[in-house]
Design goal:
Layout: H1 5-13, E1 22-25, H2 28-38, E2 43-47, E3 60-63, H3 66-76, E4 80-81, E5 91-92, E6 96-100, E7 104-115, E8 120-126, H4 133-139, E9 144-148, H5 157-167, H6 172-190, E10 193-206, E11 209-214, E12 218-221, H7 230-233, H8 243-250, E13 254-257, E14 262-266, H9 269-281, E15 288-291, H10 298-309, E16 316-323, H11 328-341, E17 348-354, H12 357-366, E18 371-373, H13 377-387
Parallel strand pairs: 14-16, 16-17, 17-18
Antiparallel strand pairs: 1-6, 2-3, 2-6, 4-5, 7-8, 7-10, 8-9, 10-11, 10-12, 13-15
This protein binds adenosine-5'-diphosphate and magnesium ion.
Amino acid sequence: MNIHEYQAKELLKSYGVPVPAGGIAYSDTQAAQIAEQLGGERWVVKAQIHAGGRGKAGGVRVVGSVDEVRAAADRLIGTRLVTHQTGPEGTLVKRVWVEQASHVHREYYLGFAIDRTTQRITLIASGEGGMDIEDVHRASPDKIIKETIDPAIGLLDFQCRKVAARIGLNGKLMAQAVRLIKGVYRCFRDRDALVAEINPLAVVDGGGEHKLMALDAKLSFDDNALYRQPQINEMRDLDEEDPKEVEASGHGLNYIALDGNIGCIVNGAGLAMATMDAITLHGARPANFLDVGGGASPQKVENACRIVLEDPNVKAILVNIFAGINRCDWVATGLIQAVKNLRIAAPMVVRLAGTNVQEGRLLLEQSGLAFITAANLDDAAAKAVAALEP
Ligand code: ADP
Ligand code: MG
């Protein structure tokens, strides 16, 4: 689960990470009020969406008067911001974060992520942060520094000092860097984060001397740990998620939208992957990944059909159930209910195996509805692909 920049900054601030003072605004008037309260001469108005690349897309505006703050907020709120991370349809901007602008001397990159190879939290840093970090990574990967953290010991001061020195943060800035890096790490570990990214971590003017500050912050959390992170869970912004995925999770279904045209209703992630592979092998593409889980009731199966059909690209449905805890008769009952209640016109290929399979098949046969039954996964995929042809 991702959160907005302003939420990430508030959270990091509670771990002692210096961030600019700011406030969140849902209207241009509110944005102007915040700028006045903050004081100063320059402000930054930043679109709050769950995507990076805002700076290059016009979603981050540095302005020099309260009127300009108002105008920038007016221009951003209500528009769809298209960045290289949003896809061509962009994301609707509902609120902006207004913060004091800093005089920036240099931009660094600081991140934490879980390295799947070492299975450890890894500190990532670069002396060349800012909006072109992806280019730095492509052109000179040696400028990206990594430090693996031993889970039994945690992040040690010397590791922070080593990384700070390698990216060029020396003298007084090194002590600040150590505190800041450790703050981000504690937040990452305590809150079950998967990714933390401070880009840029900047050296800015502060009371006549240089100081370090997190000018941007991105945090992403482990969904499986949200049950023990109520404060994080409250920061969830459902508007930023695929509405079908949100609806599915409300029904206890695991749904991921994809870009093909065969809707898949499957039980278990492994079978879902195999089903998607089989569809691809037969020359088509899955429209989604939908896992109904175990012990799916007829109602749950009907809900699954409804969610799959909300995608206008779906031209055929492939139901592939290998029932262990599930019951094929319940699945069949749910499918029959769905075809009748939702008036499903798209061809539906059904492959059932496992618990109560005879009862399930009999129900489909006796329903008088046009189910296309399949003997096995390969047969089911072939028939679903063939059903796409008019
Ligand atoms: P994104 O990563 O989505 O492009 P950022 O928050 O990193 O958005 O902002 C883009 C750039 O804007 C930063 O790299 C930085 O140069 C500048 N910037 C952001 N916040 C401030 C600030 N408070 N003061 C001065 N410059 C800022
Ligand atoms: Mg950034």
